[in-house]
Amino acid sequence: KRNIFDVMPYARMVENEVFFMDKAFDFGRKLKIGFSNSLDDEFVMAVQDMGFVAKEINGEKGFKVYCGGGMGRGSKIGHVLIEFLPEADLLRAVKALIDLFYDRGDRVNRMQARLRFLVEKMGFEGFKKLYLDYFGKETIVNGKIPKIDYEKKVRELKQFDEIENSETFNLWKDICTKETKFKDVVSLVLYVKNGDLTAKDIEKLYILMKDINTPTIRATINQNLVIPLVHKSAIPYIYKYLSEAIPEIVTETISIRGQIRACVGAKVCMIGVQDSQSIADAIGDELDQLAKEFPQYRKIIFKEAKNIRISGCPSSCAGVPVAPLGFIGLKKKINDKLTDCMQVYMGGILTDSIQSLAFEIPNLILPIDEIPILVKSLFRDYLEILQVYDITFSNYMYERRLEEF
Q1: Which class is 8-137 in CATH?
Q2: Which pTM does this prediction carry?
Q3: Which residue in 7, 55, 111, 77 sits closest to 319, CA to CA?
Q4: pLDDT of 38-56, one tens digit each?
């Protein structure tokens, strides 16, 4: 399994402790700290000011530590600061970074008030040496890390006798459930289009959680929700409840559109240039059509659609810099007419052998109505290549960027 251990208690501990550090509130801008319990999200940790990826060596819990990353204008992949940080040194590592940036960072000029600019200025090796000096002198110890009795929570999960065996239910269950280390217990992903739920829908989810007697629901970086502990027997009941109470959670889960990540766009955001969500809708329609042409590859199209990210402006709130395929909204004069367009990005990938932010494809700025057609074409080419040899969509987009652009 790719999930290492639950990082939520560690994140809460850091949050609680940093809240009482005056220096952390005088950075001139912000300090982003992220935690991941899975290698699947390592790329996202690599673009934080400080990112912690859960790691376990010979039964000892700890973290791989990234620093100096960031997204937006001047996006950067961070550097591996510490290959293995024992869990006991977590707060010590955070406090050392706060003290270092407070002392040496540019906290006056907002355009430079991020850690990545200090790392750039010093060079990573120089920065790392200085950081380890701060770390070595730091004496702070971890605050209280909440202990979660998962065995108790599992015992309290409600079991059901309901049975469901429709084709739609089986598809939904296959997409949404993931095995856990506990017998007959799964985690359940609820795909939420654009991460949008009304207050009434949230109330309905609260009722559902009481019905199945599970205490926790979490928001994910991909704009979805996860109920970490659900008894398998409850899945038919949950499906029926959601189908009646919040049907879009079921329909968007089954739809490829539900996988595409888009920011709120110009309809909501004051600095948005394009309506990213409408563009995502059009892309979803095209990929749904492609899935009908290649039904044997529907699961692959569905899985890889999460790698499409759309931002309505260069701020990259949808995470375009880490996307295998991304789009950023702008306007451009075409035939002397100001036209709604998007800049195409390709090739965001982080593996042991390849580390690359998404690359702005020169001269590939397209009117917004051509974007869905481009995406469908790229996916069609990818499916044809899959018939010859196995390759991930991330690798395919990276190679495509190198070969053609």
Answers
A1: alpha beta
A2: 0.82
A3: 77
A4: 877 888 898 899 999 999 9
